[in-house]
Design goal:
33% of the residues lie in helices and 32% in strands. It is globular, with a radius of gyration of 15 Å. The protein has a five-stranded mixed β-sheet. It has helices spanning 19-31, 55-63, 91-104, 117-121, and strands at 4-13, 39-44, 48-54, 72-82, 111-116. The chain is α+β, with helices and mostly antiparallel strands. It has four helices and five strands; from the N terminus they run βαββαβαβα.
Length: 125
């Protein structure tokens, strides 16, 4: 697999008050994935649920009935999945680094996030 860049979102919700709400939310996200999608979920019903999802899967989840509330926080991100995280000389890494500087200097509203391709291949949700 090569380096990969996806548009997506970082999200957090504290509005899931029951086990059924939690399960329904997670299942709606999972059922909206197709080949090439990315989803990472963390948290539980007591501490809230957070994660990252690619843009297309999030839009499919909304069409599939994903229920969000005012307590749902959504931040656009650009996900960079790098084959060799130690190779900081690659053009792909340099693209991530430039976007990171632009975000820090408030010239970009989309936060770049760096991942290993390993996290893409072995997703957990």
């Amino acid at each position: 697999m090569k380096n990969l860049k996806l548009q997506g979102y970082r999200f957090k919700t504290d509005s899931l008050k029951s086990g059924n709400d939690f399960t329904e939310f997670r299942n709606t996200l999972k059922s909206s994935l197709i080949k090439g999608s990315y989803l990472k979920l963390d948290g539980d019903i007591f501490n809230g649920l957070s994660g990252n999802i690619d843009k297309n899967s999030y839009q499919r989840a909304l069409r599939n009935g994903l229920k969000i509330s005012d307590a749902f926080e959504l931040e656009p991100i650009e996900m960079y999945f790098v084959m060799d995280v130690a190779n900081t000389e690659s053009t792909f890494y340099n693209e991530y680094y430039k976007q990171s500087i632009q975000f820090k200097n408030e010239k970009s509203r989309v936060k770049p996030v760096l991942y290993s391709v390993h996290s893409y291949l072995y997703q957990r949700y």
